[in-house]
Amino acid sequence: MYLGPDDEKIFNGEEGEIREKMIKLLVNLGEIYGADKLIPIGSAQVSGISYKSIGDPGMEFLEDVADKGAKVRVLTYINPAGMDLENWRELGFSEDFAVHQMRIIDAFRRMGMVITATCTPYLSGNVPRFREHVAWAESSAISFINSVIGARTNREGGPSALAASIIGKTPNYGLHLEENRRAEVVVDVERELKESDWGALGYLVGKMVKNKIPYFRGIKNARVDELKALGAAMAASGAVALYHVEGITPEAHLQSIDGLERITVTDSDLEKAYETLNTGKEPDIVIFGCPHASIEEINTVAKAVEGKRLKKPLWICTSRAMKEVANRMGYTQTIEKAGGKIVADTCMVVSPIEELGFKTTAVNSGKAACYLPGFCKQNVVFKSVDELIGMVVE
Question: Which domain holds residue 194?
């Protein structure tokens, strides 16, 4: 694996212990996957933020890195934390959890990372350009920028994304290479998709194709939020990091699909996906925003609850930036008047909601429906926004 003169200096320890460790991590990763060199990146996005996920060992590792003066070399955002960083007490998170979570956040801040704590950094200022190389670690964000924007990243782990942010480079392999971005299986969709259908389709296709690159046909139109939901669910149920949608995503027209394996998804297939994901009946709480809600999605919920009264808790998880916009637009006030809350910086998957007394969580997200049983010991109700709100209004 070729290293330029500047990289060799780092590798030989001439720029300090931490940068030496980080570049060696990247070099080892590159050698495993046959990379020929390190390539510059435009940005990074680091996972492993929630104290629930990384515990004391992860917290102490990050503090050690920060204590030794490590600084990021590119624009770097972080994934959702385990709680709302400002309103955690109001939402019922424990002080002990909050203290540990804030130590993690402080370590990232000292490294120079942008404390956005969101899984949709592309909605909050970190937007790669087409074909730009980046190193991102959140599975749904990886899928979105590879597929919808056409930037290039592999499925980074938290440590490799951290290393890339500090070095400003990543190994040149996998989805950074043109030849590895080609469609591998054609998915013919024989259903007009609505709202939560996008998550159900993603869950189903992810299970079938695993880590292959699907090429969708039959989808006539798709909003950004719908593509976000589709990719997130595929990344959760399988390991899909890139997909193409005929006539919609930017690299779809470059694909040759002759001779590829074909899958057909029908109404009955999607209904079976709904049956599989619905493991509960009566929700204790309704949570939207996995991946983090856009301002349009927040507006949709605000309209659905306007003038109504909720008999059970309702959260909309989003970034701090989107919450500020919602405040200005009056959406927050409408939702709070109905009894709901806009929750920033966290989501239902990485927060300890099971410790708050919830046993059945209702979602419209295929990703959340896939993860909640294992990560948070939750039964799941998986339906559309209107259906879920109808279940919890007085």
Answer: 182-275
Amino acid letter, 105 = I
**Which CATH number is 103's domain given?**
3.30.499.10
The CATH number that applies at residue 234 is 3.40.1060.10
Q: What are the strands, taking DSSP E only, across 91-213?
A: 135-136, 169-171, 185-189
Alpha-carbon distance of 332 to 168, in angstroms, equals: 38
User: Do the Cβ atoms of 46 and 165 come closer than 8 Å?
Assistant: yes
Q: Which of 275, 303, 320 is the last residue of a domain?
A: 275
Q: Give φ, ψ of 343 to 5 degrees.
A: -110, 125
β-strands 75-78, 43-46: how paired? parallel
| Count of CB atoms situated within 10 Å of the CB of 379 | 18
Q: What is the pLDDT of residues 52-111, one digit of tens each?
A: 999 999 999 999 999 999 999 999 999 999 999 999 999 999 999 999 999 999 999 999
Contact by Cβ (8 Å): 52, 82: yes
Residues 29 and 161 in one domain: yes
Report the number of distinct structural domains present in the chain: 3
Q: What would the pLDDT profile of 203-230 be if each residue is shown by its tens digit?
A: 999 999 999 999 999 999 999 999 999 9
| Helix segments in 330-384, DSSP class H | 331-338, 366-376
Q: How many helices (H) and strands (E) does the chain have?
A: 15, 14
pLDDT tens digits, one per residue of 16-35: 999 999 999 999 999 999 99
User: What single DSSP character describes residue 133?
Assistant: B
Q: Is 32 found in the same domain as 100? A: yes
Write out the E strands in 37-95.
Answer: 38-40, 43-46, 75-78
What residue type is 118 in one-letter code? Answer: T
Specify whether 318 is located in the same domain as 191.
Answer: no
C-alpha–C-alpha distance, residues 393 and 341, integer Å: 15
Whole-number Å distance between alpha carbons of 2 and 36: 6
Structure tokens at 61: 């590792």
- Residues 339 and 300 sit within 8 Å (Cβ to Cβ): no
Give tens-digit pLDDT for 331-376. 999 999 999 999 999 999 999 999 999 999 999 999 999 999 999 9
In this structure, the answer to whether residues 149 and 193 fall within a common structural domain is no
- Give the burial string for 299-321 (b: 16+ CB within 10 Å, else e): bbbbebbeebebebbbbbbbbbb
Which token pair is 252?
């779809």
Do residue 72 and residue 85 come from a single domain? yes
Report the DSSP pairing between strands 314-318 and 341-344. parallel
